[in-house]
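Hi P.,

Sorry for the delay on this. The queue was packed all week, but I finally got your sequence through. Input first:
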Amino acid sequence: MRRHHDDEVHEDEIHEHDRGLSYDLPVLARRRMIRLMAGVGAGLVPLVGCTADDTSSPSASAAGSASSAECATIPEETAGPYPGDGSNGVNVLKESGVVRGDITRSFGDSAGGTAEGVPLTFTLTVVDAASGCGTPKRGAAVYVWHCDREGGYSLYTEGVADENYLRGVQETDERGQVTFTSVFPGCYPGRWPHIHFEVYGSLADATTATSITSTSQLALPKDVCDTVYATEGYESSVDNLDRLSLESDSVFRDGHDQQLAAVKGSVAEGYTATLTIAV
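Then the structure:
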């Protein structure tokens, strides 16, 4: 366990990852306004996330499916304190090698480490919200990042600050899709297990860290988290998850229908996750 050495540090880490109500209120206000405006335009029909039939299949862990008529823009969320996009110190997006599908290893002049954990492959499908989620956003770009098995973030956390693993960018294909090979993230104090992502209008925008279209987060379902965290290396995640729920999480507590990924697989074979992102 790299991150926490005593109770004082533990509380500081919670503060860094969960900045409190005063920080969250502007984000929550924006999200409620988006939903209100979408509701007015759709006759106040309840809004849930889009799902792409060709990228995800129902499972016990899947978020509820929705038709294109129920499409709504992905909620805007904080990038958190460890984005690596130049907004808080280091900018990995301008480094050669960041455009890649396998994000388990560090690249370039970094330490060359590899993130360990249960394999996770996740596919994000970017679609045009104005089309009712019916039109893929071909040629857009998605930057993803998440914590490692111990809850640390490369580029920032002590012990892995010289690494840049679990970060990468890809351009969406003709189906609006990007797929990343990674490991299942751990659960650190104060936050539900999640993956950060930024959507850009083009790969050129992403690799120059300009013109972000959307910033949000993907949530992972509890039953899968419980199974993964019962394996070696995820011991600290068990207690951390027990203290949380999606309803109490600082980001997902005001609604997570559009952000809860559909997940299937096993510890032995690895997991796959899918989410459609309407922008």
